[in-house]
């Protein structure tokens, strides 16, 4: 039995994910402005990248999140956060 695909619902949910990601980015950017902690800036960049990628998936003719470029950009955003965490932990010593 084939699953029923609701493209309108898919676009709506991608919009929800996009708006939540961008709100989280603004939230962390506000904390970065107060503290100037690079970890907050890394999280803001991570959520901004995730939000932009979700919005770009919704704008594609044939949405596919499994393409190489989406994977590479998501990997780079995660590595950015991991690098900021390592930098913060090693900076205290």
Query: What percent of residues are in strands?
Result: under 5%
Counting DSSP H or I runs of 4 or more residues, the number of helices is 3
Total of domains = 1
Task: Give me the strand/helix succession.
Answer: HHH
Give the CA-based shape: elongated
Which structural category fits the helices and strands?
A: mainly alpha
Helix content: over 70%
* Beta strand count: 0
| Main sheet: strands, sense, barrel | none
For the record, give the distance between the C-alpha atoms at the N and C termini, rounded to a whole number.
Answer: 59 Å
- Summarize model confidence as the mean pLDDT: 89
Question: If you had to describe this structure to a student in words, what would you say it looks like?
Answer:
- This protein has 93 residues and is mainly α.
- It has one domain (7-91).
- Helices cover 80% and strands 0% of the residues.
- It is built from 3 helices and no strands.
- It has helices at residues 7-35, 38-58, 68-91.
- Helix 1 packs antiparallel against helix 2 and helix 2 packs antiparallel against helix 3 (68-91).
- The radius of gyration is 16 Å and the shape is elongated.
- The termini are far apart.
